[in-house]
């Protein structure tokens, strides 16, 4: 079988898993095991398809279409293959993980959850491989619906329902924009095939229009600020394995859409497109990371951090588009390479961290970091894998996050050196500064998560009695942790592959970015980076302090592990340790103008404050005010519209007949006009 | 590019500055004492302290996990790797084939990551406070460091530290206004990162840089203290490599400098470090302590200098 056939097999297997899980719904245990195992096998088949596509030539497959318009053709070119690989790698880990994880829902419809999860996976695979806009939209919509039911799975929680509603709203607003962009493209190409879109001739104004529609349409799904408002609500509301899929891969399908439409089909030949993408990249990265710092719900931290990382990916895409616009293939290659690398990396470490957060939730039944603490000793393997994820997301060398950020810096550097366009020379070094600020804050976020959950004293009873999670959950996290390390140390193998994907999409001659053990930004004179050597040297240099210790006779003097931490001579209490929400205070205080801190008079004192102004107690609370400003009017407007449009649906059959007749008359007039 | 000679030089310079780091720290203690009109400790006191601590029994908090155990080793290894990459005795980066200035900045982050986490790991209040303050300082300072280095890299056309050093030393990059401004901002950033007043009082426990040290004892404390001395001198050497690389050993046709040149380079380097420490000691002792949360006002000034440096670079002056 060639690659696309294998892919189709994987999609069918996901379908089988979905139906089987639904049929076994009454038998909770059988349902979750079936859904997980078939999901894992299907992901494995998908990964085989990826390997086939990588060693073979790009393959495509046309199926007889069930609908008259549009060819149902699947194809696996470089970009699609990469996306399939990313979806299946995460799908494998998540499927294995969820076998045990879902055991905590014995009286729930686990079979339904398995059904939608597998369906969701299948739809994502089809979205990134289908080469026809009409079917793309169908699969895109099915993906959105499947994920909606996953977000609202814990439907007894008001929070989940609200999150799902908001998600639906933003996702459909985005889909509407995508549809419009496809119709404009269709009007010039005369076909819904992506291949025909590429040939279509559009006037510059229409090209700009299509770009804007597609960028914001997909951007809503990708969670770029300020369209990110649904993301920090919807991703944490879902069960953790699903959150991992939502943040790890679903938002990547939107980035795939941006690359496919704006870069592959439209060609990105206009400078301001790239600058616009950079602007939203900066906005997302900065807002995402600042709000992540201030959160204390671990899954909301991770969701905000996804907004940040989408921003970093957009910085790469924007730089690449600028490179295309000012006709510098090297800059374009580096920018897109950095973006794709970070896309890949983010899937792995964000998936890993969401699964880690799920493991904490599984044992502690809380997502509040303030109620955790000290779990590094009780859940050592969860702690270790989470630490790998935390190091990767902080871009610590030699882990994978560092390599992609390094390429992002190098793409900025290459573009800044380009003589000619002054705006580019001004903007890109400033983007580098922003990236370093975001990087420093990402370290704070990672330390807050790991430190809050795994170090220090236990801050609740449940935290002090936690046990390690079952093996299947550890396996799922282990796969992703190994992936994070391999994608970092294996950079000299990964980078050339991604560079080929980029040159394949852009149709530019191949340029070399790696040789032997090192990677470089095309020109070795500019910089060289060798992650395998960094790993070897770091491990080797660990010998120096060890030798020093050995010279002094090892730990001959012994260790005493009895004492409480020093507390100025007073009795120690775990309340004295730094909790997660006090951890961010210096940063929230210093950058209070970003959080728009408000002083809120607390309840009993608020009333007293009226007549005794001095006796009031105020608290400063970091709240995502931007979201409230955008969200509340939008949801209110939709509610209002909905209620008024409901007037049409009055339940009188004679009125409905009138509607049909009216529609017919209007259509007749339209045709004969 | 990889030659045995350069590998040896890289390791040699890392070990040399590891060995000499406590001496410079002792030097600044002596200077401080003199300025306070005290007799002060011997310049070798830090070595004695380290040797004494190495023999002491370790007392570990019951809360501490394995992050706390490995931190002294990881931070020292990270700083040693940085010390092999920065051009210190030579004009070229000895381990330039491993990474560039971006790697150096992120290796600092590696050391900071474990340092801060170890402060939280013990459950000690002061450790946690030290950790969060250390991180705030890094958030404020890292963009300054990166912007200055980015501008210097743009002037040199490479992010390789050796190339930047070479071009500055040979006059291919003249001392433009932008270089002076960058030097000013970078010196300030180095000063802050070294844990000096007005932000920090490195001698006081419960303070920023030593905060996470509160629970360390015995051999771990010795390694942590040594690691901090090393970090300080590595920060200074990065400043010197980028802005004042004069006197470092130049390359010969064989790709490795002569032994005499390396020794001379080492001597000149230690002189420059001595002068830098002297200037820092004078500045530090002439300053009052400010409230920690006012630190951002001062770092904004540094950011301003760095941005001006960038603006002057754009204007080619």
Provide an overview of this structure.
The complex is a heterodimer of chains A (about 675) and B (about 325). With about 675 residues, chain A is mainly alpha-helical. Chain A has 28 helices and 7 strands. In chain A, strands 1-2 form a two-stranded antiparallel ribbon. In chain A, a hairpin with an 8-residue loop joins strand 1 and strand 2. In chain A, helix 2 packs parallel to helix 4 (about 110-130), helix 4 (about 110-130) packs antiparallel against helix 5 and helix 6 crosses helix 9 (about 230-235). The longest helix of chain A has about 35 residues, at about 330-365. Chain A is globular. The termini of chain A are far apart. Residues about 615-620 of chain A have low confidence and may be disordered. With about 325 residues, chain B is an all-alpha fold. Helices cover about 70% and strands about 0% of the residues of chain B. Chain B has helices at about 5-35, 45-55, 65-85, 100-120, 125-155, 160-170, 175-195, 220-245, 260-285, 295-315; one strand at about 60. In chain B, helix 7 (about 175-195) runs antiparallel to helix 8. The radius of gyration of chain B is 19 Å and the shape is globular. The model of chain B has no long low-confidence stretch (mean pLDDT about 85). Chains A and B meet through helix 15, helix 16, helix 17, helix 21 and helix 22 of A and helix 1, strand 1, helix 3, helix 4 and helix 5 of B.
């Amino acid at each position: 079988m060639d690659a696309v056939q294998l892919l189709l097999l994987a999609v069918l297997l996901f379908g089988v898993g979905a139906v089987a899980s639904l049929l076994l719904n009454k038998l909770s245990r059988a349902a979750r095991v079936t859904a997980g195992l078939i999901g894992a096998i299907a992901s494995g088949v998908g990964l085989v398809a990826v390997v086939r596509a990588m060693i073979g030539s790009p393959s495509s497959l046309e199926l007889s279409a069930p609908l008259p318009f549009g060819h149902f053709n699947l194809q696996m070119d470089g970009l699609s293959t990469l996306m399939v690989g990313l979806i299946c790698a995460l799908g494998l880990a998540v499927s294995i993980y969820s076998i045990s994880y879902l055991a905590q829902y014995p009286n729930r419809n686990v079979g339904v959850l398995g059904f939608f999860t597998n369906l969701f996976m299948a739809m994502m695979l089809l979205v990134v491989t289908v080469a026809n806009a009409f079917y793309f939209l169908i699969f895109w919509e099915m993906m959105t619906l499947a994920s909606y039911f996953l977000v609202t799975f814990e439907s007894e929680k008001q929070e989940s329902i609200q999150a799902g509603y908001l998600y639906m709203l933003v996702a459909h607003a985005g889909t509407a924009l995508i549809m419009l962009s496809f119709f404009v493209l269709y009007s010039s190409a005369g076909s819904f095939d992506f291949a025909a879109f590429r040939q279509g001739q559009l006037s510059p104004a229409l090209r700009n229009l299509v770009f804007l529609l597609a960028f914001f349409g997909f951007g809503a799904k990708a969670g770029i600020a300020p369209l990110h408002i649904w993301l920090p609500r919807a991703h944490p509301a879902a069960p953790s394995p699903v959150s991992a899929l939502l943040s790890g891969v679903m938002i990547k399908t939107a980035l795939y859409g941006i690359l496919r439409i704006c870069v592959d089909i439209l060609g990105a030949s206009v400078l301001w497109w790239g600058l616009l993408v950079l602007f939203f990249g900066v906005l997302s990265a900065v807002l995402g990371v600042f709000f992540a710092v201030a959160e204390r719900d671990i899954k909301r931290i991770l969701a905000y951090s996804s907004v940040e990382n989408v921003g970093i990916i957009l910085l790469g895409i924007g730089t690449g588009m600028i490179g295309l616009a000012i006709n510098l293939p090297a800059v374009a290659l580096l920018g897109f390479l950095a973006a794709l690398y970070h896309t890949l990396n983010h899937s792995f470490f964000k998936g890993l961290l969401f699964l880690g957060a799920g493991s904490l939730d599984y044992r502690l039944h809380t997502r509040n970091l303030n109620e955790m603490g000290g779990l590094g000793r009780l859940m050592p393997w969860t702690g270790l894998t989470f630490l790998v994820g935390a190091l990767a997301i902080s871009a610590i060398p030699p882990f994978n996050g560092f390599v992609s950020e390094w390429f992002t810096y190098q793409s900025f550097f290459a573009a800044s050196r380009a003589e000619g366009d002054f705006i580019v020379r001004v903007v890109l070094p400033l983007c580098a500064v922003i990236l370093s600020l975001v990087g420093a804050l990402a370290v704070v976020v990672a330390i807050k998560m790991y430190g809050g959950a795994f170090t220090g004293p236990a801050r609740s009873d449940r935290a002090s009695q936690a046990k390690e999670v079952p093996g299947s959950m550890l396996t799922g996290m282990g796969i992703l942790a190994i992936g994070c390390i391999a994608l970092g140390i294996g950079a000299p193998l990964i980078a050339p592959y991604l560079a080929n994907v980029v040159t394949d999409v852009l149709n530019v001659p191949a340029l070399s970015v790696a040789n032997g053990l090192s990677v470089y930004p095309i020109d070795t004179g500019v910089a060289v980076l060798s992650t395998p050597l960094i790993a070897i040297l770091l491990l080797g240099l660990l010998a120096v302090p060890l030798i020093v210790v050995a010279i002094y006779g090892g730990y001959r003097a012994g260790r005493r592990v009895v004492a409480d931490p020093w507390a100025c001579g007073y009795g120690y209490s775990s309340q004295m340790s730094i909790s997660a929400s006090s951890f961010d205070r210096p940063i929230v205080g210093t950058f209070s103008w970003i959080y728009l801190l408000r002083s809120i008079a607390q309840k009993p004192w608020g009333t007293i404050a009226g007549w005794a102004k001095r006796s009031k107690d105020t608290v400063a609370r970091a709240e995502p005010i931007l979201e409230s400003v955008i969200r509340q009017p939008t949801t209110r407007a939709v509610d209002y519209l909905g209620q008024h449009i409901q007037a049409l649906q009055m339940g009188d059959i004679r009125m409905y007949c009138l509607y049909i007749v009216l529609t017919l008359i209007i259509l007749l007039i339209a045709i004969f006009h | 590019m990889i030659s045995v000679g350069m590998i040896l030089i890289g390791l040699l310079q890392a070990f040399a500055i590891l060995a000499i780091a406590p001496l410079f720290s002792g030097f600044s203690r002596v200077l401080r004492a003199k300025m306070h009109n005290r007799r002060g400790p011997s310049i070798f006191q830090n070595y004695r302290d380290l040797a004494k601590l190495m023999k002491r029994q370790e007392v570990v908090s019951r809360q501490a996990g394995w992050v706390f155990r490995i931190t002294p080793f990881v931070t020292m290894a990270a700083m040693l790797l940085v010390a092999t990459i920065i051009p210190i005795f030579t004009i070229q980066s000895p381990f330039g084939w491993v990474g560039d200035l971006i790697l150096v900045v992120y290796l600092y982050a590696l050391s900071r990551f474990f340092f801060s986490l170890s402060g939280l790991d013990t459950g000690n209040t002061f450790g946690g406070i030290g950790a969060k303050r250390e991180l705030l300082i890094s958030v404020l300072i890292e963009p300054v460091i990166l912007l200055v280095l980015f501008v210097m890299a743009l002037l040199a056309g490479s992010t390789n530290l050796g190339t930047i050093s070479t071009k500055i030393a040979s006059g291919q990059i003249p001392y433009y206004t932008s270089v002076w401004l960058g030097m000013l901002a970078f010196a300030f950033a180095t000063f802050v990162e070294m844990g000096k007043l007005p932000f920090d009082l490195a001698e006081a426990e419960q303070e920023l840089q030593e905060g996470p040290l509160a629970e360390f004892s015995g051999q771990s404390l010795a390694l942590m203290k040594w690691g901090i001395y090393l970090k300080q001198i590595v920060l200074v050497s990065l400043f010197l490599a980028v802005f004042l690389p004069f006197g470092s050993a130049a390359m010969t046709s064989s790709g490795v400098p002569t032994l005499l040149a390396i020794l001379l380079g080492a001597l000149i380097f230690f002189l420059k470090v001595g002068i830098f420490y002297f200037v820092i000691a004078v500045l530090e002792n002439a300053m009052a302590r400010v409230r920690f949360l006012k630190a951002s006002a001062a770092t904004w000034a540094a950011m301003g200098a760095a941005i001006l440096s960038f603006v002057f670079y754009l204007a080619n002056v």
